[in-house]
Structures are given as C-alpha cells and as structure tokens.
C-alpha cells in the first residue's frame, strides 16, 4: 500500500512547491526590492519615530513645566492670603490672585469651618478638605456644580494669628486639557506628513548618492575581457563611493596589465615553439624531397637538436607556470649553497674561460635543491655565454642571509636595461646577444625561483666592466619565515630587480 502524503510538508517540500508555483519567499521578495527603496523605507521610519519621540519628550517636559508653574502660582496665592490677615480678621471676600485670575480659595479653620473664601465660593461649605496626616485634598459634595473636575489644587497648612488654618487654592486646568487635545490632533495629522516628507527627502538624497554607483555599474557592464582599457567614472569625492571607484579602476588596471602580459607571453611562447617545429619540418621536407640523395644522419641529428631545444623550452614554460601558481618553494630542505655551486662548476663545460670559485663554508639556505640549482645554472650559463676570459663565483654569509655574486668580464648590461632584463622573452639588442639561440627565459626563471625562496636578485656592474649578478637568499635560520612570506600574493611585476636575457 502507498502511504498517504504527510499533512504538513517539510520546509524543503514547501520551497520546491513555491518555486513550481512561481512564488518567492519573504526574504527573496525583500532582496528583490531596490536598495534605494529599502533605505528610503528604513530611514523614513527611523526619522519619523525620532521626530515623534522628540516631540513627545518636548511635550512631556513642557507639561511638567506648566504644572510646576501652576503649582508655584497657587502656593504664592496661598501665601498672599495668609499675609492678608495678620490679626486673624480675613477679608470678605478674599482678594483675587494677581498671578491667576481664575484661581479660587477657601480658608478652613479647625473642624473644617470656612473662615474666608473668594467671591465665587462665599457662603458655601468646604469644597475640599485636607484630612489630618494627609497631603492630598479630598473633594466634598459642595464642590459639585461649582468647582469643575479638571482642576489643579494646592492645600497648605499654616498658622495665622496663632490659629492653625488650612488654605485651599484651586484653578481650572481646562487649558491643559485643550493643549492635550490639540497636541494629539496635530500629532495624528502631522505624523503622515512627517513620514511623507521624510520619505521624499530620503528618496532624493539616496538617489543622488547612488547615482555614481549606477554610472559605475553601467560602465562595468560595458567592460569585457577583450577590452580592459576602459575605466569606471570617478565622482571626484573622498567618500566611500569615490574610494570604490578608485579601487575598481586600480583593479581594472591590474587586470589589464595581467591580460596584456598573458597575451604577450602566449604570443612569445607561440613564436618560440613555432621556430624549432618549423626547423624540424623544413629539415624533414628537404630530406623527403630527395630521399635517395638526402643525408639522413645529418637530418636526424638536426631534428634531434631542434627537439632538444623544443623540450627545453617546454620545460621552461612549465616551470614559469609553476612559478605563477606559487609552487616553486613547496619543498623546504636545508641546501648547502657551496656544494651546489661546486657541483654546477664540475658539470659546466667552458674551455675558453677561467671559472674562479671563491666560496665560504657554512652557506646554508632553505628551499628546493633542484630549483636553486637550476637558478644558479641559468645565471652561470648566462655569464659564461657573454664572458671574454673569466667568470668569478663567490658566496658568503652575512646578517642572516647568503649572498652569491656571479661576475663576468663581458660587455656588461646598460643600467637602463637592468630592470627589464628579467622580463620573459627579453633579449637585449647589444653585444650580449652575440651568443644567440637563447629563449630569453633564463633570468626570468632565476628571478621567479629567487623570489619564491624569499630572496632577491639584482644586476650591477662588475669590477672588470661586465655584469655582476647579486643573489641574496635567507640563511637556513631565517629562510622558513621568509619563504612563507614569499607565498603570499605579490604585486605584479613592477619590482626592483626584473631582468632577463
């Protein structure tokens, strides 16, 4: 038997059913409302509540002040009445108050007998009495029809001519009631007006504030990956929107530079890959055109040489790709720089040159032996390629770092080219190009490896007039921290030592 569906579906089932019916959740409906509308609604309500609360506070303070004033006036009137009969002979009727013409008064003697009263209350029994031990007057039946219910009353016990008396003073509070009713009426009418004015003001202000954001949004919509040269309009202000536009333009500039660099790299790599492939194809086509007379051993040798060149280029490109992924310093082991340089010297063929090693024992750094060896070999091969007679390799430790210098006595590198030479596929149009056959990636790879290991590489002039490459790496004690820092995202590539032949 099929079980019947539950009477109360779960939350997930309700969401699925709502999507099928085209319904949106309350949160989705709120999110769909524009920011301008939401800010206007919230700000208008907040302004209205703040204004109403402020008016109410002012009203309460004003009413308290009015009550204190009335109370003070009635007490002053009671004091004037007491002073009007210093001998106990009360004026008949009592004089009216000089502060409040609507004030009424009765003077009660012991037992509640009326000793004196104002004109309106003459001949009437006590309208209010003050029980012994109490400070609150009690309304009497005689007050009905004579004294209204909405009054302010003050009862004062005092002694006049040696006799204890009670002076009752009252005044109408009809004005206060009228003020209350008028206040409520104006508040009921003014509340919608305040809300409308606040909403309109906030709507205009928010719209004006968000106008630059809308222009930025339209500008960003028009920017595509094919053309990153456009920029968003900057409002020219120092507020958050101005900072946002400036930050977005900086980001677009970085993206544009990265895209140009990538396109340039792809074009250069394609060109470099096409050269050996074209050489291999041309060599084979010549041989196939004359299969009987072609020198196949020579053709095979040339094809093998171009294949090796192609393989080396691919390996260099893969290494640069790993550098872009921050993977060159993944391996961290102690590396003896002296031993590494001695091994490179032992496997380097340079018949026409004198390679002088000036090493200091104890030069240790942290990193990948393979990558560091490739870096040193690239720099040393570059020096051997352009040296005339001698290459000097020195290593020393100082101030927590290992410094390696590789100098040659060749034509040197112009000062204005020493930063550009570390770019990829850069070859100088000078006598240092005489070696030929290079891809222009050797020193670019060296720079990436040194940077990945927390060091730096610069080029200066050697004492003999050639090039002097100075490589500084953290020593084994501080290399761990510097290598971790080198894995953080770096600013692209306007760095002080960027050069590559």
Structural descriptors:
501 residues, alpha+beta, Helix Hairpins, Heat Shock Protein 90, 5-stranded mixed β-sheet, 4-stranded antiparallel β-sheet, 10 helices, 13 strands, 48% helix, 15% strand, rod-shaped, disordered C terminus
Task: Characterise the protein shown here.
The protein is of the alpha+beta class and 501 residues long. Among the domains are: 86-174; 240-322, Helix Hairpins (Orthogonal Bundle); 329-486, 2-Layer Sandwich (Heat Shock Protein 90). Helices cover 48% and strands 15% of the residues. Strand 1 and strand 2 (114-117) form a beta hairpin. Helix 3 packs antiparallel against helix 4 (174-222). The longest helix has 50 residues, at 240-289.
Low-confidence stretches: 1-8, 430-436, 479-501
Task: Provide the gyration radius in Å.
Answer: 49 Å
Residue-averaged pLDDT, rounded?
79
Order of helices and strands: HHHEEEEEEHHHEHEEHEEHEEH
The helix content, as a percent range, equals: 40-55%
Structural class category:
alpha+beta
In quaternary terms, these chains amount to single chain
Envelope shape: rod-shaped
Number of helical segments with 4 or more residues: 10
Query: What is the CATH superfamily classification of the domain at 329-486?
Result: Histidine kinase-like ATPase, C-terminal domain
Based on the coordinates given, report the CATH architecture of the domain at 329-486.
Answer: 2-Layer Sandwich
Report the portion of residues in β strands: 15-25%
Q: What's the CATH class of the domain at 329-486, please?
A: Alpha Beta
Q: N- to C-terminal separation? A: 81 Å
CATH topology of the domain at 329-486: Heat Shock Protein 90
């Amino acid at each position: 038997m099929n079980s019947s569906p539950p009477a109360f579906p779960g939350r997930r089932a309700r969401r699925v059913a709502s999507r099928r019916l085209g319904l949106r959740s309350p949160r989705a409906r709120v999110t769909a409302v524009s920011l301008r509308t939401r800010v206007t609604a919230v700000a208008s309500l907040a302004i209205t509540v703040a204004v109403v609360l402020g008016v109410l506070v002012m009203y309460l303070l004003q009413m308290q002040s009015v009550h204190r004033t009335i109370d003070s006036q009635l007490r002053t009137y009671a004091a004037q009445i007491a002073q009007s009969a210093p001998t106990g002979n009360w004026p008949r009727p009592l004089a009216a108050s000089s502060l409040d013409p609507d004030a009424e008064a009765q003077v009660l003697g012991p037992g509640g007998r009326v000793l004196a009263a104002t004109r309106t209350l003459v001949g009437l029994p006590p309208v209010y009495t003050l029980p012994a031990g109490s400070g609150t007057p009690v309304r009497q039946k005689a007050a009905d029809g004579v004294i209204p219910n909405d009054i302010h009353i003050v009862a004062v016990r005092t002694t006049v001519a040696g006799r204890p008396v009670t002076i009752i003073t009252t005044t109408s509070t009809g004005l206060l009631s009228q003020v209350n009713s008028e206040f409520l009426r104006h508040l009921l009418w003014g509340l919608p007006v305040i809300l409308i004015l606040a909403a309109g003001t906030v709507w205009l202000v928010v719209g004006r504030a968000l106008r630059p954001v809308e222009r930025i949004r339209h500008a960003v919509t028009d920017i595509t990956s094919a053309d990153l040269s456009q920029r968003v309009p900057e409002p020219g202000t120092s507020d958050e929107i101005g900072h946002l536009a400036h930050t977005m333009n900086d980001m677009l500039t970085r993206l544009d530079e990265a895209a140009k660099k990538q396109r340039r790299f792809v074009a250069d790599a394609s060109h470099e890959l096409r050269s050996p492939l074209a050489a291999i194809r041309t060599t084979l086509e010549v041989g196939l055109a004359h299969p009987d007379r072609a020198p196949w051993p020579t053709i095979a040798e040339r094809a093998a040489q171009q294949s090796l060149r192609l393989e080396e280029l691919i390996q260099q490109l893969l290494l640069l790709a790993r550098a872009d992924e921050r993977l060159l310093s993944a391996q961290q082991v102690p590396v003896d720089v002296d031993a590494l340089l001695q091994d490179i010297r032992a496997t380097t063929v340079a018949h026409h040159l004198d390679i002088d090693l000036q090493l200091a024992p104890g030069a240790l750094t942290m990193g990948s032996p393979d990558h560091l060896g490739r870096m040193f070999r690239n720099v040393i091969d570059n020096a051997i390629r352009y040296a005339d007679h001698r290459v000097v390799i020195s290593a020393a430790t100082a101030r927590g770092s290992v410094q390696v210098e590789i100098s040659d006595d060749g034509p040197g590198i112009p000062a204005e080219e020493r930063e550009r030479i570390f770019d990829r596929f850069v070859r100088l149009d000078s006598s240092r190009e005489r070696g030929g056959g290079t891809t222009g990636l050797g020193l670019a790879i060296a720079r990436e490896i040194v940077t990945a290991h927390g060091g730096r590489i610069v080029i200066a002039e050697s004492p003999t007039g050639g090039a002097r490459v100075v490589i500084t790496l953290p020593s084994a004690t501080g290399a761990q921290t510097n290598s971790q820092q080198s894995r953080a995202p770096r600013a692209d590539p306007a760095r002080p030592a960027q050069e590559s032949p």
